[in-house]
């Protein structure tokens, strides 16, 4: 009897989003200052709300307060958009670590803690972006992950069928040790999400880190500017929409792999299709927000038989790439798959350095097979790790570069390492100076 009840419950939860679509889903945005924002910024919550309104997805944001940093009013509170009003209700708490969200802040006891806040509302979808302050205060990542686990358990105590959208942290414009800690934390977040995901209460890991440029998308060393808020909002929205809106095509697999000749082969499989006219293959370079259509593959119409599709991207640049599918019905209705990330290896032949033993002449660097007009950062280090020279340049219209490196500024004879960084990918070569 218990097994039958459990099976019926799982079936009900599977069809529930389709039945409720049009009713208000309760969304909790919980985290620190990146979630709350200061008095001059809106956080990702406002552009996310507008995207949900545009998609005719009825939502209600819940939380224990409706203010920004230092209880300031949001610059967009009470904004009316398409007949809907933005309330700014949230669970962002400026400067708080994860343990303080759980136990309360020692200096702000009046604001309460998570176990008290969840008594005020019932959540359908929790958007969780937390842990940045813990890293900045050099707390051990393993401890923070355990605390995030407790946050999820507390949210589930109020609604056992809650869906958790668990974010990998956006980058910070901090010293390298902090950047490395964020990368480590994000890998642990991925593992935590996988371990806690269940049919009753889904945990979906949302990649906020890849393709997020801390040099252009932050207004300080940690907080997103308007463009950064838009990037975060789009990634939250894409995930929410995929969970809420019933899809006419059941996609069971979507993968990308680099071929031996540096092309990209895409594979996807459907379990069933209804009125599926075609797929558009879309690619994004460097982020997962701005996509361009690169190809089209006809669909199978209506079928309950598994179908397999492939597409070869002949012009894929050697870089971090994102792909997604735009599926179009016979009536013109469109839906999007989740994006997938392909980190391509830079070919060994792409970087050539000569001569490798340098006397009084200059050093010549050539690179090929890259994206046209792409920024390239060149750094030269002595064998002891001391930075000797930095050059910022750009590839030409053909995706190649030739750069002469002068020996002036180097630290005398010895071994040196030249590193080239292209869109987050690094290649290095060694050379010896003998004068």
Quick structural overview:
The protein is α/β, with parallel strands linked by helices. Helices cover 24% and strands 35% of the residues. The strands form five sheets. Strands 9, 10, 11, 12, 13, 14 and 15 form a seven-stranded antiparallel β-sheet that branches.
* Number of separate helices: 9
Task: Supply Rg.
Answer: 25 Å
Strand content: 25-35%
The average pLDDT score comes to: 88
Query: Helical amount among residues, as a percent range?
Result: 10-25%
What is the number of beta strands? 23
Low-confidence stretches: 1-22
What's the number of domains? 3
The CATH topology of the largest domain turns out to be: Rossmann fold
The CATH class of the largest domain is Alpha Beta
Largest sheet: 7 strands, antiparallel
At CATH level 2, the architecture of the largest domain is: 3-Layer(aba) Sandwich
**CATH level-4 homologous superfamily of the largest domain:** SGNH hydrolase
What structural class do the secondary elements suggest? Answer: alpha/beta
What is the overall shape?
Answer: globular
